[in-house]
Specification:
Helix content is 39%, strand content 16%. By secondary structure, it is of the alpha/beta class. The protein has a single domain (8-139, 211-283), classed as Alpha/Beta hydrolase fold, catalytic domain (Rossmann fold). Helix 4 (112-123) links the parallel strand 5 and strand 6. The longest helix has 17 residues, at 181-197.
Length: 284
């Protein structure tokens, strides 16, 4: 069934606010739903809350749903440097600020958000973990090095404005060849202004991920874990998900045909059904 377009501003505006963590302003969505369980959504890089719009719309009336713009992204403050430890600390402070019981919280991450969710689950007892397009190891590519080491005048307009080059590049890199162009156009509609408006230093944050790799600590996770990846994902191919699945004993792996890295846009109904079934099996 064809999904209906959801306007993220209309969906989110009534339930968002800002909180201050270590002098950094963080934009936060909280459905405030009266529920014993809370779903916390962690976006990828350089994502924002609205990347989860189809999940928020689906789950907000059943569970308490929380999502926030990670420091450096969305409408949160963008300091000169960020680190994984800061993102973990922000998550901990948000859980504390909102009086969320960790043992009844589900962390749901996409791409880089999976790194935050995984590392948090290593250190804390949570109800469940859902990883979508997870990262098993970060390796810089040629484009990363151009962004890190050359002046923004060389690459900002070339890579981060919607021109014929980026349209072809984004379509090929982030989406399955079988994905309808309408889905890609919906993504552009939601994110064009944001991607074009980000200051150059934000695109260099990935430099601080060099050396990240899942390993022994990940194998200590006992939390029930759902791992989802698009069969055509070129950014974090299924080999990443398979590696993490092999490390977490209590995990389920689902590979979705006809989906790429932006599976949240491509297959929202499938994602929502898998997450709902996973959660129901834990709390029933």
């Amino acid at each position: 069934m064809q999904k209906l377009y959801i306007d993220p501003k209309e969906l989110l505006e009534k339930s968002t606010r800002y909180i201050n963590i270590s002098d950094v302003k963080i934009k936060l969505y909280d459905s405030g739903t009266d529920s014993d369980h809370t779903l916390i959504f962690l976006h990828g890089v350089p994502g924002q809350i609205s990347n989860w719009k189809y999940q928020i719309a689906y789950f907000k009336d059943k569970y308490r749903v929380v999502a926030f713009d990670l420091r450096g992204y969305g409408e949160s403050d963008k300091p000169p440097r960020i680190s994984l430890e800061e993102h973990l600390n922000d998550l901990d402070k948000i859980i504390e600020e909102l009086s969320i019981e960790k043992s009844k919280a589900f962390l749901i991450g996409h791409s880089y958000g999976c790194i935050v969710a995984l590392e948090y689950a290593v250190r804390n007892n949570i109800a469940g973990l859902a990883l979508i397009g997870p990262v098993a190891e970060f390796k810089a590519d040629f484009m990363d090095k151009i962004i890190w080491y050359l002046p923004p005048l060389v690459w900002k307009k070339l890579f981060f404005t919607m021109n014929p080059l980026t349209i072809r590049l984004y379509r090929k890199m982030f989406f399955s060849p079988s994905t309808d162009d309408k889905v890609f156009n919906d993504f552009v509609k939601d994110n064009k202004e944001y991607i074009e408006g980000l200051p150059p230093h934000v695109y260099r944050y990935t430099k601080y991920l060099v050396g990240y790799k899942v390993g022994e600590e990940t194998s200590k996770i006992n939390t029930p874990t759902l791992i989802i990846v698009g069969e055509d994902d070129k950014v974090t191919p299924p080999t990443h998900a398979t590696k993490i699945h092999s490390l977490i004993k209590n995990s389920i792996l689902k590979i979705i045909p006809g989906a790429g890295h932006l599976i949240l846009y491509e297959k929202p109904n499938e994602i929502n059904n898998l997450i709902e079934e996973f959660i129901d099996n834990i709390i029933k």
